[in-house]
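Hmm, how's this folded?
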Amino acid sequence: MSPSRPALIVFCREPVARQAKTRLIGAMTAAAAAALSDAFIRDALAKAVSIGPSRIIIAASAAGGVERSKYFRRLARRFGAELIDQGDGSLGKRMARALEPFSSSGALLIGTDTPSLPGALLAASLGALRRSRVLIAPSLDGGYYALGVRGAMPPIFTAIRWGSGGVFDSTVKRLKRAGIRYALGPAWYDVDRWADVMLLAAHLRLLAGARHRGGASPCPATESVLDQLGVLRHDR
């Protein structure tokens, strides 16, 4: 019998001005940064729907709890997703809490800061988790943007310097030390800082230039916000 399809967990926080994408504030307004964060979330959920996991889960953080968040309740209805609260604690503790209920069939947890990631690559990572106990997809800043677990939780959620450039390396070392085999997903770039936004804009302009050959934008909501902000017209 082939392994069941894993669930896909979109891990995010409510895009509130001055709390979302704060490293972009200054290069853009707090409201614009929040709008971009919202677009990232919507694009991640649309991508999740397109690849057809067994279940889509929004693991969210919001003031007052996600069940009281009109924003997340609306997204859950729109994308046919289940809604759970990340809860308190470190990033590792919150990720483990989101993944643990899905340990029997497996779940792939993704962030929302890789909007240009092609859906086909996300689907490949989800598929690889059916053959592996752990799937980890590195981001170019030294972290990872996707983590899949099937079975017992591996010892990779504590004693990690979250937010540092060594998160991916530290996680892989912990997996090797524990003798846990893992699969690698494709590397991709995060969008956290203004230089990343410029990279994203350049990438989207290249994709748009080639779109006459067919194909859709990997992140239409993000592309729309960047266009409204004038970023996609930069240096044209």
